[in-house]
Amino acid sequence: MRARGKVALVTGGSRRIGAAISRALAKAGYEVVLTYLASAREGKALAARIGGSAVSLDLSRPSTFGRFADRLVRKFGRLDLLVHNAAVFHRTPVGEISPATWDAVFAVNLRGPLLLTRALLPLLRKGRGDAGILFLGDANAFELWPGYLPYCLSKLAVPPLAAGLRKALPPDVRVGVVRPGLVLPPDRFPAKRWERLRASMAARRGIRTPEGVARAVLLFARAGSYNRRTDHRQGGVQ
Ligand SMILES: NC(=O)c1ccc[n+]([C@@H]2O[C@H](COP(=O)([O-])OP(=O)(O)OC[C@H]3O[C@@H](n4cnc5c(N)ncnc54)[C@H](OP(=O)(O)O)[C@@H]3O)[C@@H](O)[C@H]2O)c1
């Protein structure tokens, strides 16, 4: 089923998993708006390839969200799917956690998505029904990796955030979570360590390819057309 005329926003949609999601949604017929922060060149090139748009957005600066929403209102006048893909994965060993490093992680991984949702809610509720908000969690966050404790805590809070929004928002706005497993190593992560991690039993859970994550996003996007309350635990969407 093609999503003709529907608009999807993918935060951090220029590279890596976000790029796979942007491509899949465009292929499914969505008008894709992807956001970038540092990856302007990749974002604009990908948007040109998939016939979408690339817009700059810094999730750590909520004071800019109103202007960002106005821009979407003027250009598209609707929003059908909001994919909260952007995140930071800063290495922060416990001995090095400072108020600034803690805040930097939570600002992008949790506060930004919540406040961006708030800013875009009027656009998501333009009366066409069937709007969706999808968060990217992390199937391994409860491993509480010592070098990434703030990241893990921020991602553990994503499903409860989605559940809280599900309760708070009207039923015409569906809210879901996709929880990838070990999909792609962070830039400059030692390759051998990544292979060891991927091979370990504990880390075998969750979706493990960018295309698999993109398929789960499509599953969520399409579920609205037949069942608002579909629970896709098996497919990694909740
Ligand atoms: N990679 C994995 O194996 C894995 C596993 C489990 C869960 N996940 C989750 O899946 C999602 C995508 O993973 P990924 O590894 O592809 O992510 P990523 O490369 O670490 O980050 C995605 C994008 O987030 C954007 N971003 C960072 N800070 C931002 C800010 N302040 N404002 C706006 N955008 C910002 C960056 O955009 P620019 O490049 O334009 O700066 C970046 O390209 C994340 O939510 C991640 O937590 C990933």
| CATH architect. name | 3-Layer(aba) Sandwich
Strand order of the largest sheet: 3-2-1-4-5-6
Q: What percent of the residues sit in helical stretches (DSSP H or I)? A: 40-55%
Q: What count of helical segments does DSSP give?
A: 8
The poorly predicted ranges are 226-236
Tag the structure with descriptive keywords.
binds NADP nicotinamide-adenine-dinucleotide phosphate; six-stranded parallel sheet; alpha/beta; Rossmann fold; 6 strands; disordered C terminus; 8 helices; 238 residues; single chain; globular
Can you walk me through this structure?
The structure is a single chain. By secondary structure, the protein is an alpha/beta fold. It has a single domain, classed as 3-Layer(aba) Sandwich (Rossmann fold), CATH 3.40.50. Helices cover 43% and strands 13% of the residues. The chain contains eight helices and six strands. The protein has helices spanning 16-27, 40-50, 65-75, 99-124, 149-156, 158-168, 191-199, 210-223; strands at 7-10, 31-36, 53-56, 81-84, 131-136, 173-178. A six-stranded parallel beta sheet has the order 3-2-1-4-5-6, with helices on both faces. Strand 2 (31-36), helix 2 (40-50) and strand 3 form a beta-alpha-beta unit. Helix 4 (99-124) runs parallel beside helix 5. The longest helix is centred in the middle third of the chain and has 26 residues, at 99-124. The radius of gyration is 17 Å and the shape is globular. The two termini are 21 Å apart. The relative contact order is 0.14. The model is unreliable at 226-236 (pLDDT under 50). NADP nicotinamide-adenine-dinucleotide phosphate binds next to helix 1. NADP nicotinamide-adenine-dinucleotide phosphate (NAP) binds at residues 11-12, 14-18, 36-39, 57-60, 85-89, 108, 136, 138, 155, 180, 182-184.
